[in-house]
Design a protein that fits this description.
Layout (H helix, E strand, L loop, with lengths): L2 H17 L5 E10 L11 E2 L1 E15 L3 E6 L7 E4 L13 H12 L6 E8 L9 H16 L6 H16 L6 H8 L4 E6 L5 E5 L7 E7 L9 H17 L12 H7 L4 H25 L6 H14 L6 H12 L4 E5 L6 E7 L3 H15 L5 E4 L7 E2 L2
Parallel strand pairs: 4-6
Antiparallel strand pairs: 1-3, 1-13, 2-7, 3-6, 4-5, 7-8, 9-11, 9-12, 10-11
Bound molecules: adenosine-5'-diphosphate and magnesium ion (MG).
Length: 389
């Protein structure tokens, strides 16, 4: 039994306490780390997330009166009560905007979704770059899919969840996080082409190789809603326009030097373009390594990806750089920041035998620099969204 299934009885009991009845069912959706392919998902590029054992559980029952009631063990303020026929995209809706947005997106798509009572419990840290928002959305989407017999496939649920976050919550995220939460499978990383949405499960057997993937949550919290993300996104679009391509995905590594020449008046855009083009290439190289059973060979690609995010895309921060540098200095196979940037988490690939040494080195480096202690845990490639009872 996984931790998620262990948590289900507690979530059922919490639902009963809040709503005074047993839930109709319980659904789970995981957080994720992205192995490689950062900020490529809004450039029609490649990404490669894997699901974490950390999940958001949604206990839910349908309602016949069109009322939507939302409650989370992880949020203050009690039950949020809304009418499904009065849902409108609006800024500042708080946490409930994520699940309410899913209901809105489904109804906008003409799907027969009515009211529901929902209670959430989560072990996905919020704002840590591990995608608690997509876990919340996808757990909601899967619950409604079953409660209202919509018959949607996981990738269709991911699209609706993304639409909820883009158009209802107002955060312009790409499709990666929701697809990871909906589609990942145990023991694999998900190679996703964000242009045609084709996907492939790539075996990622860390334990079998004597390797470990550590996640270092720096506890520095980012705000995706702030301007930096939208700024990078707009810069990438400007670069694509200037180069006459539909998206930066269409610039190959071979074309990069000439493309950078054409952007010579715009050093900031040059950096963005260089990151996206080299990052897409790194994803393809990581896939080739894993397909060839050369798992250790991805280490230097991860570290090169970090340098690119730090120097070209300029979204790292002191704590992320320190985590990566300290881990590599202590003998890690490779390391990089993961997620949106400006805080959140780094991932570190280590030999199992070195895991303790590397973990200790990172903790000591943070203490010496006067940063709060990071939270470090092992990422085991886990299952995507599912019904748990
Ligand atoms: P990330 O997705 O990287 O964790 P985001 O800023 O995208 O960070 O999403 C975090 C937000 O999602 C939280 O501030 C909160 O509003 C909402 N959220 C996520 N999980 C939960 C939960 N279990 N209960 C209530 N709100 C949640
Ligand atoms: Mg998020």
């Amino acid at each position: 039994m996984t931790d998620t299934e262990h948590g289900a009885p507690r979530t059922a009991a919490a639902f009963y306490e809040v709503y005074g009845a047993e839930p109709h069912g319980i659904w789970a959706a995981p957080g994720r780390v992205n192995l490689i392919g950062e900020h490529t998902d809004y450039n029609d590029g490649f990404v490669m997330p894997l699901a974490l054992p950390h999940t958001t559980l949604a206990a839910a029952s349908p309602r016949t009166d069109g009322v939507l009631r939302l409650h989370s063990g992880g949020a203050e303020g009690g039950i949020v009560e809304l009418r499904t026929d009065e849902l409108r995209p609006a800024a500042g809706g708080g946490w409930a905007a994520y699940p309410a947005g899913v209901v809105w997106a489904m109804r906008e798509a003409g799907l027969p979704v009515g009211g529901a009572d929902l209670h959430y419990d989560s072990t996905v840290p919020t704002g840590a770059g591990l995608s608690s928002s997509a876990a919340l959305e996808v757990a909601t989407a899967l619950a409604l899919n079953d409660l209202y017999a919509l018959g949607l496939a996981p990738r269709e649920l991911a699209r609706l969840a993304q639409r909820a976050e883009n158009a209802f919550v107002g955060v312009p995220v790409g499709i990666m996080d929701q697809t990871a939460a909906a589609c990942c499978t145990e023991g694999h990383a998900l190679f996703l082409d964000t242009r045609d949405l084709s996907q492939r499960q790539v075996p990622f057997d860390l334990a079998g190789e004597g390797l470990r993937l550590l996640v270092v949550d720096t506890r520095v919290r980012h705000e995706l809603g702030d301007g930096a993300y939208a700024e990078r996104r707009a810069g990438c679009e400007r670069g694509a326009r200037a180069l006459g391509v539909r998206a930066l995905r269409d610039v190959s590594l071979v074309q990069l030097p000439e493309s950078l020449d054409r952007l010579s008046g715009e050093p900031v855009v040059q950096g963005l373009v260089r990151h996206i083009v080299t990052e897409n290439h790194r994803v393809e190289e990581v896939v080739a390594c894993l397909d060839a059973g050369r798992t250790r060979a991805i280490g230097p690609l991860l570290t090169a990806g970090h340098a690119s995010l730090r120097d070209d895309f300029k979204i790292s921060c002191a704590e992320l750089d320190l985590a990566v540098d300290a881990a590599n200095a202590a003998g890690a196979v490779g390391a990089r920041m993961t997620g949106g940037g400006f805080g959140g988490s780094a991932i570190v690939l280590v030999e199992e035998a070195d895991a303790q040494t590397v973990r200790k080195a990172v903790m000591e480096a943070f203490a010496a620099a006067g940063h709060p202690a990071p939270r470090i845990f092992t990422a085991v490639p886990s299952a995507g969204a599912r019904r748990v009872r």
